[in-house]
Amino acid sequence: MRFDACVIGSGPAGATAALVLARAGWSVALVEKAVFPRRKVCGEFISAATLTVLEACGVAKDFLALAGPPVRRVAAWAGETMVEAPLPRGVGWGRALGREHLDTLLRDAAVAAGAHLCQPAEVAALEKIADGHAVTLRRGDETDIITAHSVIAACGSWNAKGPFAIDTPPAPSDLFAFKAHLRGVVLPDDLMPLLVFPGGYGGMVHSDGGRVSLSCCIRRDVLARARARHGGKAAEAVLAHIRAHIRGARVALDGAVMEDA
Questions:
Q1: Which of 44, 47, 82, 256 could form an SS bridge with 94, CB 3.0 to 4.6 Å?
Q2: What pLDDT sits at residue 166?
Q3: What would the pLDDT profile of 193-238 be if each residue is shown by its tens digit?
Q4: Average pLDDT over the chain, rounded to whole?
């Protein structure tokens, strides 16, 4: 099949690009390797300024119906320190929504605009040809080739395999990302705290369905030390590391229960 554009990755960037191009009259292939709905390591918070983008995509109403409560205050928690401040008036309020919901909304909007969805399909090869690009798609044991004048790689910058793989040696300063959904967190509905701890940073926010999303990044070398000190799996050691170094997190997470892994 021949397309004007092939968009690889149906996260917010890829789905929005496919939507805009399809509305402009382009023939678009939207390629996504994962089956939706799928979870994603992400902070989930959508700023007030970004709501205009969701409105333009035609998904703002559904987003607001699913998202967590408006965030009106921000805080910084580091060590024993807990400070907070209100967000400026007149700028609107951001909300948080799990990526299993947000990505599905945007993907479906792109398809409704005319994008051709290839899901689940993984890009096995990308080749430059005379009038564009040949994209080899793998679907289970089968392969297929589509061609497109333009290719948009919206599949992230952390690929470990495939034509967009990043092959660099590991470094102590590499950042690893973690996310957990928690219930029973002692956190005001309108407050979003920034978490600052040795070797990393993160945040918490009320997301959809009564859940609180805790997301963070931590250095490779600090993660190794945390695992040696606290034991357990990597994510468990990260959570213990955060509790050990942030009083606000200890208070908020006392009695909280993690949802799934």
A1: 47
A2: 80
A3: 999 999 999 999 999 999 999 999 999 999 999 999 999 899 999 9
A4: 95
Half-sphere exposure of 62 (CA within 13 A, CB side): 14
State the first-to-last Cα distance of the chain, in angstroms, to the nearest integer. 39
Q: How far apart are CA 125 and CA 134, in angstroms?
A: 8
Residue 167 has what pLDDT? 80
How far is residue 218's CA from residue 7's CA, in Å, rounded to a whole number? 31
**Beta strand extents in 56-172 (DSSP E only):** 73-78, 81-86, 95-96, 116-118, 122-129, 132-139, 142-153
SS (H, E, C) 239-259: HHHHHHHEHHHHHHHCCCEEE
Q: What is the mean pLDDT of residues 23-34?
A: 97
CB-based burial, 129-166: b 16+ in 10 Å, e otherwise: eeebbebebbeeeeeeebbbeebbbbbeeeeeeebbee
pTM: 0.93
